[in-house]
Prior knowledge:
The protein is of the alpha/beta class. It is 49% helix and 13% strand. The protein is built from ten helices and five strands; from the N terminus they run ααααβαβαβαβαβαα. It has helices at residues 2-9, 15-28, 32-49, 52-62, 103-113, 136-146, 163-177, 192-200, 222-226, 230-252; strands spanning 76-82, 117-123, 154-157, 182-188, 205-211. The chain has a five-stranded parallel beta sheet with strand order 3-2-1-4-5, sandwiched between helices. It is elongated, with a radius of gyration of 21 Å. The model has no long low-confidence stretch (mean pLDDT 89).
Amino acid sequence: xxFILSKTISFLLKPFVWMVILFILTLILKxxxxxxxxxxxxxxxxxxxxxxxxxxxxxxxxxxxxxxxxQLEGNYNYGVVLSGxxxxxxxxxxRVYFHxxxxxxxxxxxxxxxxxxxxxxxxxxxxxxLGQDVMDADLIVMYYDLMGVPREDILLENQSxxxxxxxxxxxxxxxxxxxxxxxxxxxxxxxxxxxLACFENQDLTVTPFSTDFHSSVIEFDLxxxxxxxxxxxxxxxxxxxxxxxxxTYWVMGYI
Length: 255
C-alpha cells in the first residue's frame, strides 16, 4: 500500500500542479475576491518556483556535499550503487540506456578501479507501479560486464522497490558476507540524505559518496532569474519529493 501511495501522491508535490489549479480556479470561481486571490497566488508561485536563482540556492542547500576521493581512507569492502538510472523499456536491448544519474554507476566503477572498494553491490528492482520485465540493477550488471568487472566482484540485489528496501535488502547481503564491512554509499546528491539515513538505520558503517549534482555554481543571470524556467520547477519537485520521503520514512520508522 505504501509503495502505491508514494507513487501516486508525488503528483501533488509538483509546484506547477499547484499553480495550474489556482489558475483554473481563477477561471471558474464566481466571486471576484476569490478569483483575485487565486490569480495572485498562482502568479507568486510562478515567480518563486520558476526562479532559477531560488531553485539553485535551495538545491545547493539540500544536496549532500561532494566527498573528495582523498578522504576515503583505506579501502572499503563494498560500494553500494543505488539504481533507478536506466531506461528498461527502450529497445533494442543490446546496450544500456542511462538517464541522468549515470554518475552513480561510473563513479563506482572508478572507485573500484582505484582499489577504494573491493566489490560493487548494485541495489534496485522495479520502481514502476506496473512492474517491468528487466530490473534496473540487472542492466547495470550488464554495463559492468561490458567494462570487464569480474562477476565475483559484483553483488546483485534486484528486488527492492524504494530506498528503504534498497537499504534493508542490501544490508542482508552485506551482513551475510561480512558483518563488519565498511561501505561506501553511492547515489545522487539530492537523494543522499534519505538514502544515508536508511542505510545507517540498518546498523551499517557507511561513508556517503554523492554524485550527479543538480545545483551549479551561482553566476549572474538576470534573464534566468526573471523568466520562469522548467529547470527550476523540476528542481523544486525533486526537493519536495525528498522532504516528503524523509518525513514519511521517519513516521514509518524506516529512519
